[in-house]
Amino acid sequence: MDGPSENPELWAFLESLHRGDRLSGTVAAIERFGVFVALDDGPSHPVFPGVGFITMPELSWRRFDTASDVVQVGQRVSCEFLQFDTTNLEARLSLRATQPDPFQAFADRIAVGQQLHGPVTELVPFGVFVRVADGIEGLVHLRELTSAPVESPSDVVQTGDEVTVVVTEIDRERRRLALSRRQVSSDDV
Predict the structure, then answer these.
(1) 79 with 123: CB under 8 angstroms?
(2) I want to staple 80 with a disulfide (CB 3.0 to 4.6 A). Which of 18, 28, 68, 97 is the partner?
(3) Closest among 108, 101, 1 to 58, alpha carbons compared
């Protein structure tokens, strides 16, 4: 877009922001690729409906289908500033950074070897996802589904089936939970 000479007020505002700053505003538009936010304290944008922009992954820690599952146009939001996007002359924001990460709280409560129970939420070629807590899903790899080899997860389970699993790995950094159905002892099922 334009440099500092074209939009000096906007450029100066964006350059004054620091990573971690809290900015509030109103959801101005919801697009396929993210959400525009009209910031309370900033100038308006020459092209976009708002100077603030939240990419889809930065909307929520939880899985969702569309941005409108998380926010609505006209909704007031408080976000964390991530970076100044000098190409689009916008403030990249995060809504999820203002909320506690449910995965970390969950990881504090569980341990490898612990048994959990929940519904199968999704079948993928390499295994199945199981919801083991509110907003927390783990992967049961294909080889961990049963003791006998299977070619497809649908040979063993369907979406919605309730299963018992054992925690085999907790990756806090990548927010991933590895589970096994094969390692559940038959006494416990």
Answers:
(1) no
(2) 97
(3) 101
Please give the angle made by the CA atoms of 180, 186 and 189, to the nearest 5 degrees: 75
pTM: 0.79
Compute CA 150 distance to the chain's CA centroid, rounded to the nearest angstrom. 31
Nearest 5°: the CA angle 81, 58, 136 is 135
Under a CB-based contact definition with an 8 Å cutoff, are residues 87 and 114 in contact? no
Domains in the chain (CATH in brackets) are 8-98 (2.40.50.140), 102-188 (2.40.50.140)
Coil, strand or helix: which one is 98?
helix
Do 45 and 58 touch, CB atoms closer than 8 A? no
What confidence score (pLDDT) does residue 2 get?
54
121-141, pLDDT tens digit by residue? 999 999 999 999 988 999 999
